[in-house]
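$ ./design --mode recover --in tokens.txt
reading tokens...
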């Protein structure tokens, strides 16, 4: 009886060790997510995307997710320490020479074309009647949520560069909220007259005013380009958040991740993944001094 119990115990522990060894041998897929300023109109797609990838690949791979500041994610993509990453289209396109390849681009209910869905608003106080167009902003002070942000910094600078100005000498000063977690910091600086103008990702102002209805009519978007029913913006539209693979991801992993996200149902907010077929505007912007 004692011998049988020992055998059973040895078998039990051997099974545990074998099981742990199998788990430990599962390959790891690391997904990097770039830090983004909140509120972000695309944020409802993030968690469902990670869940879809886990469900599709979780039986064969360990899925690890890491949030990165922009410069750290760039390093991780270049050295191959992440396999998949989620970022702006501009960030992704800067890294194609380092092996990055797009798998899917986010689609929102208001902007169903993944080639044209992300822009920026150049915002001033409505009371500033001296600020009516982009040339009026020359020599004024600016606030941004992050100098690393593609759509809310580099895109509006590109609009200024397209007018023939040097975007880095256009403003007298630039206040950076230093990767602030809330774009309200930029609007507060504008409201308190600490600065003359703010750059915001488009739709951010509308989301802010939904939460702060008493401030409706306080702000104005310079040279709006939007159609009726869209969020106010001062720039052209570019592809938005893009899911991409790196040189460390195997073709099989890239295939499975692409399949997982493209097969996802729409989120309750109506977000879904699609395929952008034209990054030419983004590439042209990257060629200017604005990026």
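writing sequence...
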């Amino acid at each position: 009886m004692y011998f049988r119990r020992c055998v059973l115990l040895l078998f039990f522990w051997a099974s545990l060790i074998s099981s742990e060894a199998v788990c430990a041998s599962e390959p790891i897929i690391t997904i990097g997510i770039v830090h983004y300023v909140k509120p972000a109109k695309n944020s409802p797609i993030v968690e469902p995307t990670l869940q879809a990838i886990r469900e599709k690949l979780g039986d064969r791979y360990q899925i690890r997710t890491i949030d990165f500041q922009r410069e750290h994610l760039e390093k991780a993509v270049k050295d191959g320490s992440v396999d998949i990453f989620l970022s702006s289209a501009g960030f992704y396109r800067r890294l194609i020479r380092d092996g990055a390849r797009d798998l899917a681009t986010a689609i929102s209910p208001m902007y169903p074309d993944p080639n044209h869905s992300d822009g920026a608003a150049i915002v001033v106080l409505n009371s500033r009647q001296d600020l009516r167009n982009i040339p009026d902003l020359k020599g004024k002070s600016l606030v941004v949520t992050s100098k690393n942000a593609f759509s809310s910094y580099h895109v509006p600078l590109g609009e200024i560069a397209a007018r023939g100005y040097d975007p880095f000498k256009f403003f007298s000063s630039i206040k950076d909220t230093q990767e602030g977690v809330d774009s309200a910091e930029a609007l507060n600086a504008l409201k308190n007259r600490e600065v003359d103008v703010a750059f915001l990702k488009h739709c951010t102002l509308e989301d802010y005013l939904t939460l702060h209805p008493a401030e409706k009519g306080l702000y104005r978007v310079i040279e709006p380009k939007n159609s009726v029913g869209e969020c106010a913006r001062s720039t052209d539209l570019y592809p938005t958040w893009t899911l991409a693979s790196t040189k460390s991801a195997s073709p099989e992993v890239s295939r499975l991740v692409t399949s997982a996200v493209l097969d996802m149902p729409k989120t309750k907010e109506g977000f879904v993944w699609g395929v952008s077929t034209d990054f030419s505007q983004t590439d042209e912007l990257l060629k200017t001094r604005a990026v």
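exit 0
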